[in-house]
Write a structure and sequence with these properties.
Number of helices of chain A: 27
Structural class of chain A: alpha/beta
Oligomer: homodimer
Helix content of chain A: 40-55%
Largest interface: A-B, 110 and 110 residues
Radius of gyration of chain A: 28 Å
Largest sheet of chain A: 6 strands, parallel
Strand order of the largest sheet of chain A: 10-9-11-12-14-13
Shape of chain A: elongated
Chain lengths: 675, 675
């Protein structure tokens, strides 16, 4: 806890300090002619108390691992965060605040993950910041349980989150907060901005929940009815929250847009500038006499957290020095993991693991290959932190070194998320953002739909997160079309910065895992079969080329026809090629487990794999054909599935929908016969 | 209420009757060697009481509009539903039960909407059936409020839903049940199968909610701790639920797989056959002496609900006869709406409305055009039932005839869903399934992600549901990349049976709305701009061709180059064409508001719009380029966006990302210069 100067004789009043946040927010929104003044003006008093008296952080080093985390889940109130960061001394200048919502500024409309200036996560899509905060608090708890030693609480910080009505209406709040209760994340402290207003107006018409009772039902410590404009009440609530070993929800009654005399308490303050007249009136009401983007020196001095922050970090560094002396190996490992670095011997370890898998070809489902890869890699990577949305035995995400985490035994590395795909993914994002872990989580590919926007935020933030998505096609069989993904590979492929792997056998699966582990700047979707697939033969060059996303798996010389396939359809393409070769055709089979990786290769490499001179091309994937047009061209053909599946044994479905070597060969012959 | 024969002297015991369901489930799963016996065996006693003593339905006419609705939200227990339907007398033969999970059977792994046999909705993706049930109960309540008259409760039925732990862990349960409480859906009665088990095992490790307290926080009537194997207790709970004017949750303690002596109470019964030995042991335990797929005559007789059902419907028909005599216009309108038919004069009305819109060209955002279209069509369509996920003023979904529905005033046609996109969409699905309404719901296009799997189920079921998805590109501007869809048009396009419209101006928007309204067998996504777009000029043929999905908007004769665009980029393409024409190039502009509609046109029409002879093609869309490769071919180019956007004013973003006539013309000239 920072020593508070708030009772010094000459300190500006708390209300003045909060008004600095209000003025910056209303002025920046007014200047941008776009934005959300209501929330910052409503939560300014709460923010002032939290950041002044409680938040332990160092603006001079936003990456200090033991800083408290602060998440603005109601991200539309971004100006509150920017005001706090600017005034506290982070690298966010007043000029950046003037440039709020302008091209290239560090002050986008909604906060975007940027540790240079202290933004811990990207928020705006409601409810997700809350799930990130749960992930951060969980990461803190388990990292502490793993690394702390008597006298050395080297991992020991709080996670604070601001929430609005919208966050609490969203379903993800249910998923994430239920888990936070189960896991007893006592250092998670959330502030509910209970202002009674959402975009459509007074929430009474559509949000009748007894929210305190709801959170008590989750096992939370709830502080209802706190006056969000009474700093003493807020401070006392935070003290109480910190003293409790359950996660806490502080329900703060606030007035949205507080200080804008004619608009406060109304949805009109939510998402639009107040207007010049109302901004002027608010200045009068608040007694804020300074022009836009000016904050008087005494307030600046008060807000500046750099001195206290440097001292806090220095104190922790001292602790780390002692810890390093007493526990040198632990300390080195903690430092490595917090830095997000793979082990020094990772490359040779991974090479050997891949070689062992290549040397042990097995017909098996790629979800089983995924488990083999996990078992191969995990011994070198204690930072792997995984789980499943209640499909552990199906996703095969529990490896030999997995230890299930519970409230009582937090030093685990495996999470039973229950049936909560979206919450799981938001929590995994939070774990990745916290640092110290490489998170992965499993569900059926079809239910990536439920988690989709959290995967998108991982891609937008550029964080390492691995989605293990099994049962990847009609090969799922009898569970039927509700559970059979058809369009999901395509819909994940079109997401920017999402890397999608659909490997064809154990070796490609292991390469995909390795690529996902080594990818520091974005998420990966591993798309895996339920059903067994045979191993393919590869020479050393082919083995090396798997990581390029596509490569020639079969066939030498310039072919008459190219078959392109991914995942379970690669073996099918190979069988079709055998039929065609027996008839004297020169056929190349290209395995394309990762379309995006291939598209990022040099033009020479792409031309070598898919020569422009060969227009006879046939792509095979038991899923949406849409993205394959690009690779087969207008003269090519696609064996895909552009309709929903059926409930039946997998083999019958493949037969019915044309995924047999014979049927593929028929189409290939048509192509070969065409002039 | 059906008169219960359950106390007749010779009637088989309730337990025997329930055991028929258990046996059918375990035997069908065993035969299929795939499926979920645990839930049917656990909930058989509850189902027996509900279907015997309470459910009002007519197996002879599964489309009887006033039937009680029964939703199996924990859809993996499909054999319970199939057993109930078969034994009650629906058109589902024992042979179909034998063919459980086999190709072409009416008994897929998870229930699929099929009114021929009484399956009310497609379930399996957990939590969504519950949201459908909320929609059905809401539809009943508002339809009753609209059409019932003193002495004529012609719309008067219950909606029952079975739920598992998984349904209640999913976030959508929070969204849907909060609304059900707010709307006071007193005729919604849910049975929570509280068996303490999910796929990963004992739920205590990941589901610590006090569920009764949680639902009380939503304003529900909760009956905790009911013994789900005690028919009297279940019956009393249903009576109490029906007597309460809040939605009811009956929490039933059950044993999963009850009757399987060695496996009951364990997750091993959830998703796999019991095995021949355990099936035999269960026969002993249950005292069920009949071979697989045999049910003795006395039990069959008991279960047969056809006589009672025919009598119930006859009673209602009598009521309708009186209603028709006293309120002929209301009755005719109710019948039309329940039949899902558009008004008799719809075509001429819609033609006139389109003509009026064509005659009043305005530069405006297509979301505003959408509101104009709604205002034009809604007076003829009282069945339009809309809402927004807390973005009413942004989505512009509230038309001049909208009346906001509340618990106290249920005869409305507009819903404030709050910030609940997934719940909204599941509820809209339920409204569509109930009948009497054409539902639509608004959110930002980017948040279609949150609702994605509910849109998928609408597509899979083939039901009429309209998603109003506004702020469709970087044109959203300052709110930044979290709110700017990039990949969303593509990701909706690849969903089977989802029709996506991205209109370029007011006229195309109105055509899109009309198409969505007239489409009986699937959902439509209307993708609309935030920013203004100019009106395009069209002759009568062009106006007629809009509904074909793509058409030549500009240019005559065989062109040197084709520009293809959709939505806000059509005007840009036209401007680029003007630049190129001034240089002497013959340029055609194709507007393609609906890719799938175009692909369904005749080959002749497609060739006429996009002649194979013209290989110089340039597609322009401020979004994912991936699907355009198909239309431009390998010689063509695409001006798209394959990365996330930025927070800045929209005009600057279009400029920055290359969406200006000048930049498009530069690429076009490169194409024209290529040999």
């Amino acid at each position: 806890m920072v020593t508070s100067p708030s009772n010094a004789v000459d300190a500006p009043s708390r209300r003045e300090r909060a008004n600095a946040l209000r003025a910056l927010a209303m002025d920046a929104v007014q200047k941008a002619n776009s934005g959300h003044p209501g929330m910052p003006m409503g939560m300014a008093d709460i923010a002032e108390v939290l950041w002044t008296d409680f938040l332990c952080h160092n603006p001079q080093n936003p990456r200090w691992p033991n800083r408290d985390r602060f998440v603005l889940s109601n991200g539309h109130g971004s100006m509150l965060l920017y005001g706090l960061l600017h005034l506290s001394g982070y690298g966010l200048s007043m000029e950046e605040l003037r440039q709020f919502r302008q091209f290239g500024a560090k002050t986008p409309g909604h906060p975007e993950f940027d540790l240079d200036i202290g933004v811990e996560t990207t928020t705006g899509p409601l409810g997700q910041g809350l799930s990130n905060a749960v992930g951060m608090a969980l990461a803190e708890k388990t990292l502490a349980a793993t690394f702390n030693r008597p006298g050395f609480p080297v991992v020991d910080h709080y996670t604070y989150a601001f929430l609005g009505d919208g966050c609490l209406m969203e379903g993800i709040s249910h998923e994430a907060c239920s888990l936070a209760g189960t896991w007893q994340l006592g250092k998670l402290i959330c502030f509910y901005d209970d202002n009674g207003i959402s975009i459509d107006g007074d929430v009474a018409g559509w949000f009748g929940d007894d929210t305190p009772a709801r959170f008590e039902a989750y096992g939370w410590h709830v502080l209802p009815g706190v006056d969000g404009h009474d700093p003493d009440a807020v401070g006392a609530a935070i003290e109480a929250a910190r003293a409790d070993d359950r996660p806490s929800l502080i329900c703060c009654k606030t007035v949205i847009g507080k200080g804008a005399p004619n608009k406060q308490g109304s949805e009109s303050t939510h998402g639009a500038p107040l207007g010049a007249d109302e901004v002027a009136a608010a200045r009068d009401t608040l007694g804020w006499e300074w022009p836009p983007f000016e904050v008087p020196a005494d307030l600046r001095e008060f807000w500046d957290a750099t001195t206290a922050g440097v001292a806090s970090e220095a104190e922790w560094q001292e602790l780390m020095t002692g810890y390093t002396a007493e526990h040198p190996e632990l300390a080195a490992e903690l430092k490595r993991r917090l830095a997000g670095e793979l082990p020094a011997d990772w490359n040779s370890f991974a090479d050997a693991a891949l070689a062992a898998i290549a040397a042990d070809p097995q017909k098996e489902a790629t979800r089983k290959s995924s488990l083999r890869a996990l078992n191969a890699f995990a011994p070198a990577l204690p930072e792997l932190f995984g789980g499943s949305a209640d499909l552990t035995g199906s996703n095969l995400t529990l490896h030999n070194g997995s230890v299930v985490l519970t409230a009582q035994e937090p030093a685990g590395n495996y999470l039973h998320f229950g049936v909560r795909e979206f919450g799981m993914t938001g929590i995994l994002n939070g774990i990745a953002l916290h640092g110290g872990y490489i998170p992965y989580g499993g569900t059926f590919l079809v239910f990536a739909d439920y988690a989709r926007n959290a995967l998108r935020l991982a891609a937008l933030m550029g964080i390492r997160q691995i989605a293990v998505l099994t049962h990847d096609s009609i090969g799922l069989g009898e569970d039927g079309p509700t559970h059979q993904p058809v369009e999901h590979v395509a819909s994940l492929q079109v997401m920017p910065n999402m890397r999608v792997w659909r490997p064809c056998d154990a070796f490609e699966t292991a390469v995909a895992w390795r690529d996902a582990i080594e990818r520091p700047n974005g998420p990966t979707s591993l798309v895996l079969t339920r059903q067994g697939v045979p191993p393919q033969q590869r020479d050393a060059q082919q083995c090396a080329d798997v990581s390029r996303g596509a490569y020639v798996l079969r066939g030498t010389g310039m072919p008459d026809l190219i078959l392109i396939a991914s995942g379970s359809e690669v073996a099918l393409a190979v069988s079709a090629a055998e039929l065609l070769e027996a008839e004297g055709h020169a056929v190349r089979v290209v395995s394309m487990p990762c379309m995006k990786q291939f598209l990022e290769q040099s033009e020479d490499y792409r031309e070598a794999v898919l020569p422009a001179a060969v227009a006879r091309r046939l792509a095979v994937e038991a899923g949406s054909p849409h993205l394959w047009h690009r690779f087969v061209g207008q003269d090519g053909r696609i064996v895909g599935l552009d309709r929903f599946g059926e409930s039946a044994p997998a083999a019958e479905l493949f037969e019915h929908f044309g995924f047999t070597p014979e049927k593929v060969a028929v189409l290939a012959r048509e192509l070969l016969a065409a002039t």
